[in-house]
Specification:
The complex is a heterodimer of chains A (about 500) and B (about 240). Chain A is mainly alpha-helical and about 500 residues long. Helix content of chain A is about 70%, strand content about 0%. Chain B is built from five helices and eight strands, in the order αβααβββαββββα. The chains are: A mainly alpha (about 500), B alpha+beta (about 240).
Chain lengths: ~500, ~240
Amino acid sequence: MLFRPDRRDFSLIGFYAGKVIFGVGLAMLVPAVMAAALGERNELYAFLLGSALAITAGRATELLLYTTEPLSTSHGLAAVALSWILAPIFAGLPLLLSGHYSSYLDAYFESMSGFATIGLTLANDLDHMARSVNLWRHLMQFIGGQGIVIVVLTIFASAGGRIGYLYTGEGREEKILPNVIRTVRFIWRVALVYAVIGTAALWAALMFAGFTPATALLHGANLFMAAFDTGGFATQSSSVAFYRSLTVEIVLLPIMTAGAFSFALHYQLWLGRRSELARNIETRTLATSAFVLFTIMVIGLGRTGTFTDFFVIMRQGFFHIVSAHTTTGLATVPGRLYVTDWGALAPAMLVTAMAFGGMAGSTAGGIKAMRIGLIIKGVTRDVRKVLLPEDAVVVETFHSSTRKLLTDDQVKAAATILLLWLVLYFGGGLLGMFYGYDLQLALFESTAAASSGGLSVGLVRPELEWPLKVIYVAQMVIGRLEFIAIFALFGYLLAIVRGRV
Amino acid sequence: MSVPARRRPIPRVRVALGGVALLAVLGSIVAVGEALRHPYRPETVALDERTGSDPRDEIMCPEPQPREGQERDATGDSLQPIAVSSNELFDCPQAYDGQRVVYRGEVVGALLTRDVGVWTQLNDDVYAGDVGPLPAHRDYRGGNAGVGVLLPADLAAQVRFVGGPQTRGDVLEIRGIFKRVDETGEVAVIHADNGQVAQSGAANPDPPLLDRQIVAFVAMAIALGMIAAERTVARRR
């Protein structure tokens, strides 16, 4: 039975959403500092305005809805969903004022694409965009990759021990350490260590590619955020192809892969348990899937004669399969070529890789290797049950940090979420077809939006029909939060209308 | 949803009013954003004349031409270069592969010097033409990424302006061979052998917008006041 929400429910959800908005306002001061340093005056005032509005709205909400009530799971989930829907409104203001977006909807789309680490863009004339605005686009990916709520409540505002319910709401289930605060600190430590190493490596590679040290540092930092947070935005409209550098591509491969690893796996590696890489169900699933998809892709590219040279197939094919599988979305060829020069099999493998995605509890999106691994294990167990004598006890286990027994509930939960993902992918694809796009294009772009894959065949562009923009935004947030938080928020909305007193 | 001991649901009318108030706040943010955007440029031509390619358009590729070196006239002169746009090259890469082309676009991003020449991106979108780069106007027409071009060092040396923030790059007209895949593994690029600066670039300053400055200062003052108010109330609690 649904109960109509009372003041306590509204206060709890609004109070924490207010904190997040306040934090987003403070985060906007980072690109403001850069705009001031580079003399980008109009951008400086755009960021100050966006920041001021977010701070005012956030603090006003906290004042009006102040509460000391304990946070429950449903409140936490709804607060996370509301924060994710509202934050891009404030974050999109400086984007609109940058002059590169034709409407507020486009700026909102871009912000959601950044926070949800999708990488699809509606920017006009990206090549002339101010550096501070480009930094903000990439910073949103860094913030969203770790989790907006987690980032702002651990850095910019305090939520104390109540952060646990909010942590769960952002699509993370596994507590790596005994409590959430320590887990979040560990996530930050991993992200910062990778940031230093990754940016330094990219900086060196970009200087080797012909950039000046200052420009290389700027591109390197942005590229790192796009790759590690599996975001896929780029500072130039030609994405990674702009650099014309095999070295840059080679440096990006491990960074994208690290971004698709779960923080639980990073923790095991941090402790020196390298054997986890070989035993973990997710690394095994990812490696197998990437190998199979890459092999089929090579066959496809070979059959169509797209690439005939082994080195080129390895370079282009492998980079794209890793970019798609980690749901990063960085590209080394113009997206239009997937349609006009790559045949049917290779783009189909890219769509499949984006749909599968990375590991649960990572910055990557998609169905996740854990669920695919569990479902395969479940099917294997059922086949063995059929083949063995009826009184045989069939037990299946999997390894994820420790050896665990596979239960029916785990397989059922994984299958349910898999079904929801497929509905999400095909739903967006159907709407694309309604607007006259081919099945191949519509499904590619829908999967890219929902899974956070971010590779594009050119359907997402400023001229895109606005209902499709709205649908893709919905797919982005539903996919990033993995359904449940959005369901919780809609549960509250339904309770307002139909709940009992 | 948890059920507290004593629930006092808020009347639906008050919830609806709260919803309207929230929408009004969000609407006012959108309105502020719209009001403070870059002004229209007076000479701006008709809006919404999109020039980017539409993925729904049927692609009509030319018949594959004889490859460079396969068919030459009696004098030994090379074939006439074909004038192409980036959309045409990406729509029909196989038809143009190995063809001698003439291509025109703005130098954007950087000039990357290598042993074999200088790599750059030549963008032929509308912002490289008469419309001019953003954000100086509000004439949005989508855009594309242009084509990667390997320039000979002497041609690259003629480039004075590289397009980027507040800079309009030189527009180059180059002649060379389009390659679906070149020897180094780069895809859909042109190896230019000659060309010239067709249009000189320039600084593209973004004049300060006074109304935006004033509103930003006022909003910041209100935000600081709100922070102070929240701190005061928090201390009293």
